[in-house]
Protein: Chorismate synthase
Amino acid sequence: MSSSFGKNLTISVFGASHGKAIGAVVDGLPCGISIDEAALARFMKRRAPGQSLITTQRKEADQPIFLSGLVNGKLSGSPLAFYIENTNQQSKDYNNLRDIPRPSHADYTARMRYGEAVDMRGGGHFSGRLTAPLCCAGGIALQILKAKGIEIGAHLKQIGSVQDRTISFTDPDMDALQKVSHETVAMVSSQSRLRAITYIDELRQEGDSTGGIIELFATGLPAGLGNPNFDGIENRLSQALFGIPGVKGVAFGSGFDGCLDRGSNQNDPFRLENGEVRTLNNNSGGIQGGITNGMPLVLKVGMKPTASIAKVQPSFSYEAGANTDLQIKGRHDPCIAVRAIPVVEAVTALILLDFLLDNNLKLD
Structure:
């Protein structure tokens, strides 16, 4: 299975949702940088399950156990290797799914690709559980970037019909994003947050689900990062972001809405401010020709509705060779976008750090 990404900084994820452990190996991290493990734990807790009624009730500590690469709180230069134990699996909830594939899951396609022996308990290696090691690796990258003046923050732009307050593309309020990052639903508007929580809880009680749109901002990036054509900022970010289970779309700047607008509205005119080049707008999301222009990076990620819902759905039985109905059991998020925000931040941080290493930027 393809479980690695990165160019200078390579990340390989291993494990399965109901296996003994999950983890990752990260090669290419700079040597000698101090890592705040308490801050890393706080970041990973944002993704951890079982923290509210509107997320899965599976409870996991998500405590990484480092095998190499981190010595006395500092990156040692060797590949960073760690694992996270799975302690709260309920595999019996998935016994019938070997025979009856779940709609909109990888159960059927994985079996077609790998055969009957593939482990799909809880989603196996395709599960959102594998985003925990991504958050560990990405949490370290976030700390390295922040020390260089690069800050990353995201919020839930929309869940169902509930929209959050608009964030400026040219001067995003990163403090506001940081302030709501540990809320049950990371929306800047408290009114929208309450409406979203109510909506998600209603869906949970109905046995249904919804998707959402995550909007991310990165500030402090220098102009000139990236490459044209097939190795640009958008290219490598999109490839990695689509590796997050449930992602159905990635857009930059004004995205598809901007594609339907006029050029006179969407162009980003240049101006000099105190000797620095800026743009009046930032509809391109801080990128032109695959290369950063020094403005904030802006991207959106669309997450599909959780496929595991309690409603009865049509499927088929391999054993019987006939159509049948399926009711999925187990513990599932009614909206995976809620816990996906730190994952999107983590993956973005890893790719941006990889780009900085392209330029041989001194990081210690």
